[in-house]
From TrEMBL, chains A, B:
This protein's UniProt keywords: Methyltransferase, Transferase
Highest taxon of source: Bacteria
Protein name, as recorded: RNA methyltransferase
GO biological process: methylation
Length: 267, 267
């Protein structure tokens, strides 16, 4: 049992709360049972160490057993040690150091089906929004999520937590410039739909057949003109009441689910 | 200009961050330009006092002018005073003390159109979720939002902020017990659709014609059996990928928008 919250190992794990350390080591910390369970279930090859308190080990026996069955190193730690490792206030007794899981752009787009659904996040800055969109993209059955450069780091603990495990569920690329992302999609015959409050096409009039990607902009200022111009259509979610707007995560989820439903009813 | 952050007036405003004080006084504090703008625009009759810093008064002249045109009392305050009044860390220089705006259940349901869309929140505890659902209901054109007893207080500053002004946009009832809410809707011919991950009807198969209400449950445990039994159908949003679930705000927004689209295409 690891009991010294000031040990070098604990400090090394805690340092993963810094983006610079994550970049250098290629590792990040998945905090809480949902994240650890999905990491172990979907990408055990990327899990380096699981840390669990005695209490959490009892409560989450299935996770611990799955980790052991996958041959992973599971370390017993005191609650103090876990708290010292984690960024979140209540990590619920379990965390895992994982290798980053993003892949190069061409690899994320390697196996797109004919009716591919892709989600592109450009300049998204709020961790909760980014994580919730990734979760929504997963739930809507998206085939890939592409996060552009100048966006929040997807390995930030708040993003990881907001994805509720979806981070490990679908091909993810991070850091490519927006023009490169759009060109790569276009090359593969994926139509580009910009989601923007300034769009002239209403969501229910948009052509959602075949392969397409939703291009989402920044929370506050939306998509710049040159990105909208580079897309095949600029689509807006209708606002029926008096609300000024929808937030990014809500708009993205509605767009992705509308696409999923269009694909489903076409099949 | 009010400059003393320890004055009785400032203390009285600050005390509105406590639910007990809000209940007793029937007042709450709307913090930030979006909330104040919508309160002044939609329900000036319920705004008691507007407090604004010199800097914010310059940045939000339209809000200040609208408040003055409505005959409201606009007080210049120092940044210290505004910070001492507010619950949020960065209130952006403007806040308003408002009368609560909920109405009795029968009043919230008084003017329902034949294709009414209603949102019922039962046992919702997270302020951000509650506020985001109210915003989503507004955007989807819902005709009323009914928040049951044992739910988060909608006048909590986090809820108010998350609604981004939608709090003032549509009839709202709070505090009625769930059975009473469901009976009142049924009496008015509004069909009851429980939104729940345990539902057997998929959203795209649900009957969304005519007047109906979406009944949303608690973030963690969903809807209790007796509430599901009291509804006409229990509907689940399909999960196409590997995501375990959608969060409450996302699920509610998808359901409400799907209803709005069904009503739109029927018209």
């Amino acid at each position: 049992m690891l009991t010294n919250p000031r040990s070098d190992r604990v400090k090394a794990v805690r340092a993963l709360s810094r983006r610079s350390v994550r970049s250098r080591t290629g590792e990040f910390l998945a905090e809480g049972p949902q994240a650890v369970r999905e990491a172990v279930a979907f990408r055990p090859d990327l899990v380096r160490d699981v840390y669990v308190t005695p209490e959490a080990a009892q409560r989450h026996t299935a996770i611990v057993e799955a980790a052991q069955a996958a041959g992973l190193r599971v370390h017993d730690v005191s609650p103090d040690v876990l708290a010292a490792m984690c960024d979140t206030e209540s990590p619920q007794g379990i965390a895992a150091v994982c290798r980053v899981l993003d892949v190069p752009l061409h690899e994320a787009l390697a196996d797109l089906p004919p009716d591919a659904l892709v989600c592109v996040l450009t300049n998204v800055r709020d961790p909760g929004n980014a994580g919730t969109v990734i979760r929504g993209a997963d739930a809507a059955g998206a085939d890939a999520v592409l996060v552009s450069d100048a966006s929040v780091d997807v390995y930030n603990s708040k993003v990881v937590r907001s994805t509720v495990g979806s981070l490990w569920h679908l091909p993810l690329s991070v850091g490519a410039p927006v023009p490169e992302i759009l060109a790569a999609l276009r090359e593969r015959g994926v139509r580009l739909l910009a989601a923007d409050g300034a769009g002239t096409t209403l969501l229910h009039d948009a052509d959602l057949s075949g392969a397409h990607a939703w291009v989402m902009g920044n929370e506050a200022w939306g998509l710049p003109q040159e990105v909208r111009d580079a897309c095949d259509d600029v689509v807006r979610v209708p606002i029926h009441g008096h609300a000024e707007s929808l937030n990014l995560a809500m708009a993205a989820t509605i767009c992705l689910y509308t696409s999923a439903e269009a694909h489903r009813s076409a099949r």
